[in-house]
Amino acid sequence: NGMLLELSLVILALSLIVEVIRSHRQLGKAIKSGKTNPPLEHYPSVTVIRPIKGLDFEARENIEAALNNGYPAEVETIFVLDDSIEPVLPIIEAAIERHFVSGRPGSAKVIFAGQPPAGQTGKLNAMIKGLDQAQNELIAFADSDIRPDGDGLRFLVETLMTSNGAGSAFAPVVVLSNNQTVGDVGYSL
Question: What pTM was computed for the model?
């Protein structure tokens, strides 16, 4: 029984890897083809959940870009921190204040996830807590160290809404810095 379980897990893991590679290639072909998605008649509202732990390089610029996403419909951005002593909190609060004072569209808030339960990572805990607070039609998760451009969220939603059988969409990754660790190389791939 133990060997059968191990074999089943290996087959499941290999199937998942094949699906990730297939999806990545499909997205790569779509991007390289230069084909753009047609504009939608109706853009659904989106909640973007951004778990943040610590202080990322260029955090202020990444947070500002997250709020100035250029999406043509309602966007709610939820920044999820472990607690109120996270060093990035004042940066987020100032960015949200500037965003609202400027009159730009969208809403944003900070929530605190607390310590994760046993068997759960902090990021997963933050994602679940953010999901509990989400108010919009679609949900997007974004890492704290990304800086979206003004078209990325729209592109993701158009891809999701116009692709037959799509259940999820992923933005193409652009890495601008030199690889310094094995993890950097893996991320770049």
Answer: 0.73
